[in-house]
Write a structure and sequence with these properties.
Length: about 250
């Protein structure tokens, strides 16, 4: 891993000349597994970050029925976001596990972008696998792929008044063409990174707020599981970021 990383170009520092970000993912816990340390660093610096989730994660725990699981996971997500300084958490109520890429999803996300008017939009890996640059790896879930692709498209949709004109006529949402970057977390082809050191402990506490989900996911001690997972992730990027543990992103400028 280290030898391969040394053959790749260094990761650039993330753009810093922005004030508002909107993070759009499929499920509760996606951001906590992906980039909460970066979000903690940004909010500590006075930037505004809002969360938008396509689902409430209601199909995520096998032993808990969706009508019970959805409110539980929503509450865990709100508590988790608060740990890293995020107070605005919204849900679109698409069905967990069967989110479909299409006009409805693009419209919902474009509407949120117009409401929040971010300069930076954050999402999760939209590609087929979690594999390495050479291919292979675990297959990505349909929800992640659908939401990630829709985010990349909706960032442009939000700025065009003739795409989804009903957003203006019915909701009063004027176009917002101020998105300057879309940053994809958990990508296998990162281009930029954020120093994870200052926000890592809060990221660990943030993921630990997903108590019910983690308890169903592993028999390992929750704190040991979370700390090992997140620490391992940020250490992987260190070889390309001056030896510093980092949260990597693939940045698409607009």
């Amino acid at each position: 891993m280290t030898e391969h990383a040394e053959q790749q170009p260094p990761l650039q520092s993330m753009p810093a000349d922005w004030q508002r970000a909107l993070a759009v993912v499929a499920h509760p816990d996606d951001l906590e597994y992906g980039c909460a340390a970066a979000i903690a660093e940004w909010t500590d610096g006075g930037r505004e970050v809002a969360y938008l989730l396509a689902t409430r994660g209601e199909a995520g725990i096998d032993g808990v029925a969706p009508d019970e699981c959805g409110p539980l996971r929503e509450a865990e997500q709100r508590a988790s976001a608060a740990v890293v300084g995020v107070s605005t958490v919204e849900f679109l109520d698409h069905r967990d596990g069967v989110v479909e890429y299409g006009l409805g999803l693009r419209r919902d996300i474009a509407a949120a972008i117009r409401r929040h008017r971010p300069e930076l939009v954050i999402t999760l890996n939209h590609r087929d696998t979690w594999g390495g640059v050479g291919g292979g790896g675990y297959w990505n879930t349909p929800d992640h792929k659908a939401v990630g692709r829709a985010v990349l498209d909706a960032a442009a949709d939000a700025g065009n008044r003739w795409i989804f004109p009903e957003l203006v006529s019915e909701q009063g949402l004027e176009p917002w063409d101020g998105v300057r970057w879309v940053a994809v977390a958990n990508t296998t082809t990162p281009t930029h990174a954020v120093d994870a050191g200052p926000g890592l402990e809060r990221a660990i506490r943030s993921l630990l707020e997903h108590k019910a989900y983690i308890s169903a996911l592993t028999d390992q001690d929750p704190e040991e599981y979370v700390r090992n997972f997140l620490t391992g992730n940020v250490q992987q990027a260190a070889a390309r970021f001056g030896g510093r543990p980092a949260v990597p992103f693939e940045v698409f400028p607009r």
